[in-house]
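Course exercise 7: structure representation. Students receive a sequence record and must write out the corresponding structure in C-alpha cell form. The form below is the worked example handed out in class, using Glycoside hydrolase family 31 N-terminal domain-containing protein (908 residues). Read each field label carefully; the graders check that inputs and outputs are placed in the correct fields and that the protein name is recorded exactly as given.

STUDENT ID: A-19
EXERCISE PROTEIN: Glycoside hydrolase family 31 N-terminal domain-containing protein
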Amino acid sequence: MKSWSIFCLLTVLLAQGVFAVKKELFKRCDQSGFCQRNRHYAKEISQTKNNYYSIDTDSLIFGQSVISGIIQKSFNETFKVNLPFEIQVLENDSIRFKVDEDRSSFDLKSTSLLEKKRYDEAWKYAFAQEPKLSAKYQVSDSLDGHIAVRYGKSLEYSLDIDTASFQLTVSFDGEPQVVLNDRTFFNVEHIRAKDQQVPNMLPEETDFDTFRDSFKDSKRDTLPFGPESIAVDVSFKGFRHVYGIPEHADTMSLKDTTSSEPYRLYNVDIFEYETNSKLPMYGAIPLMVAHKSGLSTGLFWVNGADTFIDVKKEGTDTQTHWISENGVIDLVIFIAKTPQEITKNYAALTGTTQLPQLFSLGYHQCRWNYNDEDDVLTVSKTMDEYEIPYDVIWLDVEYTVEKKYFTWNPAHFPDPERMMAKLDETGRTLVAIIDPHLKLDYPVSDELVKHDLALKTNKGDNFKGHCWPGESYWIDTFNPKSQAFWNDQFSNDSAFGGSAINLHIWNDMNEPSVFSGPETTTPKDVITHGNFEIRSDHNIYGLTYHQATYGALKQRYVNKRPFILTRSYFAGSQRTAAMWTGDNMSQWSYLKISLPMLLTQNIVNMPFGGADVGGFFGDPSKELLTRWYQAGIWYPFFRAHAHIDSRRREPWIAGEPYTDIMRDAVRLRYRLLPLFYTKFFESSKFGDVVLEPLFYKFPDDESLFGIEDEFFVGGLLVKPVTDEGAQTVEIHLPDDEVYYDHENYSVVQGKGQKTIAAPLEKIPVFFRGGTITPRKDRYRRSSKLMKYDPYTLVVAVGTQNKAHGTLYIDDGETFNYESGEYLYTSFDYDNGTISGQALEGQSGFTGSVTVEKLQLLVPDIKVFNGFHKASVTQDGASWEASISMDNGSLIIANPKVDLSGSWRIDLV
Ligand SMILES: *[C@@H]1O[C@H](CO)[C@@H](O)[C@H](O)[C@H]1NC(C)=O
Ligand SMILES: *[C@@H]1O[C@H](CO)[C@@H](O)[C@H](O)[C@H]1NC(C)=O
Ligand SMILES: *[C@@H]1O[C@H](CO)[C@@H](O)[C@H](O)[C@H]1NC(C)=O
Ligand SMILES: *[C@@H]1O[C@H](CO)[C@@H](O)[C@H](O)[C@H]1NC(C)=O
Ligand SMILES: *[C@@H]1O[C@H](CO)[C@@H](O)[C@H](O)[C@H]1NC(C)=O
Ligand SMILES: *[C@@H]1O[C@H](CO)[C@@H](O)[C@H](O)[C@H]1NC(C)=O
Ligand SMILES: CC(=O)N[C@H]1CO[C@H](CO)[C@@H](O)[C@@H]1O
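STUDENT ANSWER:
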C-alpha cells in the first residue's frame, strides 16, 4: 500500500476529475510562499547586485575547531538583524556551517504554545552521534576582508571567508570547488510581528503569502511566525553532474530546473503520477553529491522542513539554490577524491545502513491483500510446489478489525500465532503493516490519548484527521515517551504478536499521510513534541516513527535484528529501516525509472531499497512481470506487491514459459545471497554502496557519469531489460576488462557499446574479470534452510591474470557479530594459485565453512592445458583435488577447504 486514491475517489475530489487532480494537489513553487519569495529575490538581486549580508568582523571568535561570529542583515545604518553563525571543522575534511537568528528581542505573544527559537534539531535525528571536530586548521587573516582557513590532513583544503559580501569558498589545490552565496541568494527572512503586516522588506523582496497561505486546503494555516525562510545558493565549480536529494522519480544525474519546477523535498503520499518529475515523494534525504574527474564534493542540507532546490547548469559549473520554509541553516560540505568517499564520509556522520537479517535479502511475497490464514498458507505452499524460494509473506491493512492496528480480524485470522508458527516451520517470516494513524475510540488510541502522546493542533488539542480507519489520531514519535508506549503494543505478552518469533513490521503512511489534510499530510501548524510546529520537522516524522518501531521490535526480540520497511524516510533512516519507492504503476516506464531511483538511494547511503515488482497499480503483461522479476532480483530489497484491485499475479499464475523464467530469476537471487549479504556487511561497516553506479567504479571516465540503467553488484555487471519486446540490449562496457556472460561464460570485451542477445529468458549479467563471487547453488525453500549449504566460488580471471573477492558470514539474525562472531574472509587468484585468508575480528566465529566447487573463468581455456589436478594446502596438510573442464571453465570439485581458515590451491 498505498495511496489514498480510493478515499479521494469517494470523498475529497468529487468536484474534480480524478486524473486531472493528482499533480494539482501539490504546491508548485509559485504557489508556495517561501519558494516563490526566494525565487523572486534571486531574480531581483541578480539584477540590482545589492548586498545586505556581511560578517561583523568584531564579532569573530576563533575557537579550537570552531569559528563563530555574527552575520548582519543590514537594511540601513540603524536597522540590522543579527544572525549568529558557526563554522565547524569536522573530521574527514568536512566543513559544517550553521546560521541561526537572534530572536531574543522579539516578543512572541505570551499566549503562544510555541517555542520562539528557530528549530535546530534536525541534526539530532540525522547524525549518528555528535559530529567529531578536527582541531587541525590554520587561519591567516588577510587585509582585504578575507579570512583564509586551511584544513585537512596536510592542509590541502582551504576555506575562504569573504566578510564583506559574506561568501564562503572551499578550495582544493588552490582551485575553488564549492562556493556558498556565489550568486548572493543567501537570505534569512527574519522574524517580524504579524500586526506589522509587511515591515522591513528589502527592495528585492515580495510579500507573497507572508502571513497567509493562499493554496487550496493550506488556507487554514495560521503561519504564526509569518515569513521565516532560509536560503542560500551553492555553486559547484567545474562540476557538470550532481546527484542525490531523493526522493524523485527522475534521472540519476539531476536536471537543470531553470524552466521547470525546482526539486522539492516534502514527504507526501503521492501516487500514480508521471515519471521524470520533480514533485516531492515519500522520503527526503537532502544530500547532493557533485562529481567531476578527480574530485567529488557533497552538500548535506540538514533541515527537515519543506524544501525546494533549483539546479542550473552554467558552462562547466552546476549552480544550486536551496530554499527551506524555516529552521536554521545547517549544512555540511564534504570533499574527497571519489564519490564513494563522499558517501562514506556522509555515512561516518549519519551512520551506515543496518546489517539486515539474512532473510530480509530473500524474496518477499506481498499483495494488498492476503485475505486469511488459509490464503497465506496456500500461497506459501504453492511457492514450494513450484519450487520458487521465498522468505517473507506480507499482510496489508485488511488483516485488522476495521483497520485498527494491533488487532486481528478473528474471522480471518483466528490464531495468528499458529499461522506464524506454521510459516516458521520452513523458515518463513510474516511482515504485517502498522501505520501511525490510530482510529478514535479503541483501547490503543485511548491509551495514546491518556498518555498524552498524540500530535497536537495549534490550539493544543489532540490533532484528528482522516486516514484508512476514518477519524484518527497520530502518535507523536518525536516525544521520547512514545517509545515505552510503542514497546507495549509490540511486546510478546500483547495480543498482537504473542510469542511469535518471526513477525516483523511494515510502516506505511508515515509521511504522515492524512487524507483530509493539505497536500495529503498534516497542516503545517500542527504541533510536535517540544512545542515546535511540524512545519519545522515534517520530513523527519517518518524517521522518528520507524525508529520507534525498530526500538519496539528490538525490545521484543532482545537479540534479533528488527526488519522494518518504511515508506517515509529522512537522512539517518538507513540506520534502522529499508525503503521502497511507493505506489508504482504496472508500466514499463516505472520499471525503467526504478533503476536510477535505487542508484540514487545508494549514492545517499540508504541502499536497502526496492520498487514493487510488477508495479502496484494495474495489471502488468506477462512479459512486463517477467522482466520486472529479472530486474527486481537486483534490488537490494526484493518484494513483489500489488494493489487490491489488481489481479493475482504470484509467479506461477502467468504459466509457461513465464513461470519458469521467473523461478530461474528468483533462484538466481538466492544463489547470490552470499554476495548480497557480503555487500550489506561492507555497506554497514564501511559505508560502501550495494548497487554501484558505473561512475563509482570509474570516477575519472566522464562518459559514464550519466549511465543509470546499468550497475555493479560486487563483481557482477548488470543491465536489466526494461523495454517491451526487447530481443537484444545495448550494454556499455565501462573498461577493457574481460566480461563473462554469467550463464555460458562467453566473453565480451572492449570498452564501449555492445549489443547483447536478450531474449525473454535472458538477464544480461556479466562477471567482471578480476573478481571472485561467492554463491550457494542449491535450491532450498528459504534462506534459513540454506544455512549449512556449501559455497561455490566463481573466479573470473582478469586481464592481469588475477582476481579478488570477499565473503562475510555470521548467524544471519542476531547482534552477536558485534562481539566478533563472524567471518570476513578474502580470496585471491594469481596465475594458477587460489588462496583465502581471514580478514579481521571474528574472534567468536566457530564452525567450518565448506566449498563444493571452485569455478575458474578465463578468456581462453587453453591456458589450463597441461594442468592435471589441484594441490590443496591448509593447516600444514596437503591433498589433491580433481579438475575438469566445463563449458569453457575449469572446475575444481569439492576441494575440501575450510573457508574459516587460511588455505591455498595450486594448479599442477
Ligand atoms: C573519518 O575520520 C576518522 C578519524 O580521522 C577515521 O577514523 C575514519 O576512518 C574516517 N572515515 C572515513 C570514511 O574516511
Ligand atoms: C532603516 O530601516 C528600517 C526597516 O526598514 C526602517 O524602519 C527605518 O526607518 C530605516 N531607518 C533609516 C534611518 O532609514
Ligand atoms: C518475552 O520477552 C522477554 C524479553 O523482553 C523474554 O525474556 C521472554 O522470554 C519473552 N517471552 C516469550 C514468551 O517469548
Ligand atoms: C552466451 O549468451 C550470449 C547472450 O545470450 C550469447 O550472445 C552468446 O552467443 C552465448 N554464447 C555461447 C557460447 O553460447
Ligand atoms: C605463471 O605461472 C607459470 C607457471 O605455471 C610461469 O611459467 C609464469 O612465469 C607465471 N607468470 C607470472 C607472471 O608469474
Ligand atoms: C554447460 O552449459 C549448458 C548450457 O548452458 C548447461 O545446460 C550445463 O548445465 C552446463 N554444465 C554445467 C556443468 O554447468
Ligand atoms: C520504481 C518505480 O517504478 N517507481 C514509481 C512508483 O510509483 C511512483 C508514483 O506513485 C512513481 O513516481 C515512481 O516512479
